[in-house]
Design a protein that fits this description.
The chain is an alpha/beta fold. It has a single domain, classed as Vaccinia Virus protein VP39 (Rossmann fold, 3-Layer(aba) Sandwich). Helix content is 41%, strand content 22%. The chain has eight helices and eight strands. Strands 1, 2, 3, 4, 5, 6, 7 and 8 form an eight-stranded mixed beta sheet that branches. Helix 1 crosses helix 4. 35% of the residues are buried.
């Protein structure tokens, strides 16, 4: 499927507003993820593989912050036929793009897409798997514990949460180096120094990462019994949490 190229920050801006998930962003979001998230397609493949082992017949698979529904396309032929897919996102533009993608590939499964601010109460019911791919970091820190607890309450016994986040290193030198390596990756994928700097400024007030240990404790304190890493690349981390 053809992807529109991400050039949102290509022109110099005098004032950098907070990053938003508007229609303009939705149109280029798939390209942005491919070029901005290390091993993005492999992360999606790994999440799908794990989901296939935990999705149970008649249950629901949730993607919180589903954006353009790439995860559903990965999972279509891997989970039981009577699984219902539920995607939540606070951007109607992202959900519209997701519907268009699913229709374009002839997606055959039952699915629901809900416009929902994840900082506010939301419904999780009969879930065997919940996905949060670069989503929790955008939820206000004051409500993250409540959000994780709510997810755990909506998961069936032995259900799983798959969480991918940017993470901070407790060591400032390592943290600085990891960020530098990440920026090198983005340059190698065609982003300019200005694009990288402007996007970083736009995200500064709305993307608030934790250390891995903080995320782990957050999960253990709010309804999960086991927490393990399934992916790690410098300052990106994939986490599997079992209820």
């Amino acid at each position: 499927m053809q992807k529109d190229k991400d050039e949102l920050f290509r022109q110099e801006r005098g004032l950098i507003a907070d990053f938003d998930f508007s229609a303009k962003t939705a149109e280029v979001f798939d390209d942005m993820l491919d070029r901005s998230v290390p091993f993005y397609s492999e992360i999606q493949r790994m999440m799908a593989e794990i989901t296939a082992d935990f999705a149970t017949p008649g249950s629901r698979v949730y993607d919180l912050g589903c954006s353009t529904c790439t995860s559903f396309m990965q999972l279509e032929h891997l989970v039981p036929e009577d699984v219902t897919f539920v995607g939540l996102d606070n951007s109607e533009a992202m959900l519209d793009k997701g519907r268009s993608k699913l229709q374009g590939v002839g997606f055959s499964r039952n699915f629901e897409l809900v416009c929902q601010d994840l900082n506010e109460p939301f419904s999780i019911q009969n879930a065997s798997v919940v996905l949060m791919n670069l989503t929790l970091q955008f939820i206000r820190p004051l409500v993250r514990a409540q959000t994780v607890r709510h997810i755990a309450e909506g998961l069936n016994d032995n259900g799983v949460l798959l969480l991918v986040e940017k993470v901070l290193s407790p060591n400032s030198t390592i943290n600085r180096l990891f960020i530098e390596y990440y920026h090198r990756m983005k340059k190698a994928n065609g982003y300019s120094e200005m694009e990288i700097a402007q996007k970083r400024e736009a995200l500064e007030n709305i993307l608030i990462p934790y250390r891995f240990t903080e995320n782990r404790q957050l999960l253990l304190d709010n309804g999960f019994r086991e927490v393990e890493t399934f992916f790690k690349w410098y300052n990106f981390c994939g986490i599997v949490a079992l209820k």
